[in-house]
């Protein structure tokens, strides 16, 4: 058997996963193909298959590589509400950096890192004294809120309008100005929140919504 090339010898699962994350960040899950990955790594797809069985395994490994450091950093602490807030904000920021992550977590909750995320959130909800019959609903409501809000925030930041149109401040200011022209009898809610919407901070709004969820869980 001829000796393997240096290029193949240098290839590792970690290198493949890192390159996959770069492709996912740049172009999303649909663009992650073994052909594209081979081009990024200057190797053939066969060499990649030696380390990773297929795209599903690669997506799981990429999700695990991004998610586990967040979960490790958020472990521990005596205040379960503070732990949930810290983990939620870390996820919000991480999904902003890796916009494909939220969909991958929601696509397969049974992946190892996804199970650990559910345990972190659910364990904190349990530590809050939540009744057992409400544990599942409370924990999944938080996970759904966090991932859904984070995914929407990341999508907004990468929309065609955000990339080529006015700044965020100009866009929100323009929407608020139009809202202020609406009939207050027909649109009482929108008229009341127009100024707040124009000046709001996305991360602060995200945490405010999470606090409303936690306050509701406290009443159970």
UniProtKB/TrEMBL annotation:
GO terms for molecular function: DNA-binding transcription factor activity; transcription cis-regulatory region binding. One of its GO terms (biological process) is negative regulation of DNA-templated transcription. It holds the Pfam family TetR_C_1. Residues 10-70 form the HTH tetR-type domain. SUPFAM superfamilies: Homeodomain-like (SSF46689), Tetracyclin repressor-like, C-terminal domain (SSF48498). InterPro entries: Homeodomain-like_sf (IPR009057), HTH-type_TetR-like_transc_reg (IPR050109), HTH_TetR (IPR001647), Repressor_TetR_C (IPR004111), Tet_transcr_reg_TetR-rel_C_sf (IPR036271). Residues 33-52 bind DNA. Keywords: DNA-binding, Transcription, Transcription regulation. The keyword ATP-binding does not apply. This is Regulatory protein, tetR family. It comes from Tsukamurella tyrosinosolvens.
């Amino acid at each position: 058997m001829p000796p393997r090339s240096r290029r193949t010898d240098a290839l590792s699962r970690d290198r493949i996963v890192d390159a996959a994350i770069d492709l996912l960040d740049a172009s999303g899950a649909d663009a992650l193909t073994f052909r594209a990955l081979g081009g990024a790594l200057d190797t053939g797809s066969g060499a990649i298959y030696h380390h990773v069985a297929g795209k599903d395994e690669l997506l799981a490994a990429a999700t695990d590589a991004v998610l586990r450091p967040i979960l490790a950093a958020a472990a521990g602490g005596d205040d379960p509400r503070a732990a949930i807030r810290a983990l939620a904000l870390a996820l919000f920021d991480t999904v902003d950096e890796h916009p494909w992550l939220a969909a991958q977590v929601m696509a397969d909750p049974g992946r190892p890192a996804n199970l650990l995320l559910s345990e972190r959130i659910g364990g904190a909800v349990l530590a809050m004294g939540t009744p057992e019959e409400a544990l599942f609903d409370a924990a999944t409501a938080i996970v759904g809120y966090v991932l859904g809000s984070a995914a929407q925030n990341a999508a907004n930041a990468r929309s065609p309008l955000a990339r080529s149109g006015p700044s965020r401040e100009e866009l929100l200011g323009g929407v608020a100005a139009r809202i202020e022209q609406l009939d207050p009898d027909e649109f009482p809610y929108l008229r009341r929140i127009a100024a707040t919407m124009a000046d709001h901070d996305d991360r602060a709004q995200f945490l405010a919504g999470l606090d409303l969820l936690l306050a509701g869980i406290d009443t159970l």
